[in-house]
Amino acid sequence: MSTDVELQNLVKVRVSTADGNKVQVTVPVVREKEISVGDIHMKACDCLGLNRTSSKWFSLFCGGEESIKRLSTGTFIHHSSQDIYLKKWCFNKEIEEQLIKDDQAACHLVYTEAKTAIKKGLLVMSDEQMEKLEEYDNPAFRLEEKYVQLVHSLKDYFSIMIKNCKISDKKINDGPLQVFHSGSVRISVAGIFLNADNFSTIIEWKHLKMWLIHRGLSQLTFLFVSPGDREGTVVIETCQCEYALAAILEIVKELQMSSPCKSFYYSSMISTNEEGTTSYENVLFSE
Q: What does pTM read for this prediction?
């Protein structure tokens, strides 16, 4: 980000996408040395050729390609912020199917993200599926929409993956000692999948009572009830805790919209204590 137009109180912001493309947009400085995420998002989407109706399914993220934090359009960031990426932010298959059909630019971005996820080993497929994807990805006649449609059938497509994190699994009644193990976390509409050196488990949304984020410690804590009615807690330590929190909130919102129970969040369900920990009661929890 440069300030070569400083006299006009404008700054240039570079936004990257999964295909390696980098677009530069000019936005005004507002308040004290801050710029609007909404301004950056709107101009970046325009530069990339996205329809206005499609842009809401894409978000800005900071922290480089791995995403440290989702930047909400109603917020502001420092004018010198760097490593901003635009990525798909949709966990609904029906919506994304319509998106890639109606908007060629959106389809291309979704395709490149899917291709990147496969290259990184974040999605698993059969040899037959891989062969078909290679056919659709033929440079001579690339079929991006067909490629994405096939990827939609992969088990973990509509999810986010947090790799190289630390996980502590201890029961509520255990002692104070907390031991962390290397592992990974996948968050999807099916639940929260935890895989560490010493254990592997899934917390379904209906069994999750509450989650907490402690930004100072880069930790997320999950309080849940196992099918056997035993309470437990899992703590995840990762620099991507804000990114994981954003995914949890988005997926819970998606599940609420598709659920007939009509559960809603109330302000009393979210609280912050003196230590800076914010807790969220889960509206999807079922005793």
A: 0.91
